[in-house]
Specification:
InterPro entries: Glutathione-S-Trfase_C-like, Glutathione-S-Trfase_C_sf, Glutathione_S-Trfase, Glutathione_S-Trfase_N, GST_C, Thioredoxin-like_sf. With about 200 residues, the protein is α+β, with helices and mostly antiparallel strands. It has two domains: about 80 residues, Glutaredoxin (3-Layer(aba) Sandwich); about 100 residues, Glutathione S-transferase Yfyf (Class Pi), Chain A, domain 2 (Up-down Bundle). Helices cover about 50% and strands about 10% of the residues. Strands 2-1-3-4 form a four-stranded mixed beta sheet, with helices on one face. Strand 3 and strand 4 form a beta hairpin. The chain is globular.
Length: about 200
Amino acid sequence: MKLYDMELSGNCYKVRLLCALLELAYESAPVDLGQGENKTAAFLQLNPRGQLPVLDDGGTVIWDSSAILLYLARRYGGECWLPLDAIAMAEVMQWLSLSQNEILYGLARARAAKKFNRPWDIEQSQALGKQGLRVLEQRLSGHLWLAGERATIADIACYPYVALAPEGGIALDAYPSVRAWLKRVENLPGYIAMPGIGTA
């Protein structure tokens, strides 16, 4: 199994984290976005969108972090990380949608603008990110996990850019239930950190 990866990418980290929690070994293949390695003909054969992460599992190539989480959870995680029940699965998918909307276009873009000078509107991104945090706080004020009564890929999908929100200028002080949930994720057996989170 090979993961085309970038250390500071929250989306790549989602995959690394799930692999660690599932005790899956993989080869890391770093891709230098600054040098345009994601736009080479060879890389575009793997992912025509030119984005990370990309997973190659014995010739099965999957791109997009949510798609990879779904694949790994179903193939290697049984029902632990992605339940088979229709309602429970739909609950997981709701939070994957949040991770690809308010969290990605809000929290992740605010971080990219401040930390990497990406051309996103910081204030607009922060406002959208705070909307996502309010949704998370509402759910987590009465539940330990985002979907069901145990950790699932819903938590893995949302965790990185929420934990990295301060790098985008968004303090988490107003979201005590979210902060408690971050600690629960960090206490999962097999948890690994990335630069900026889980290293204290």
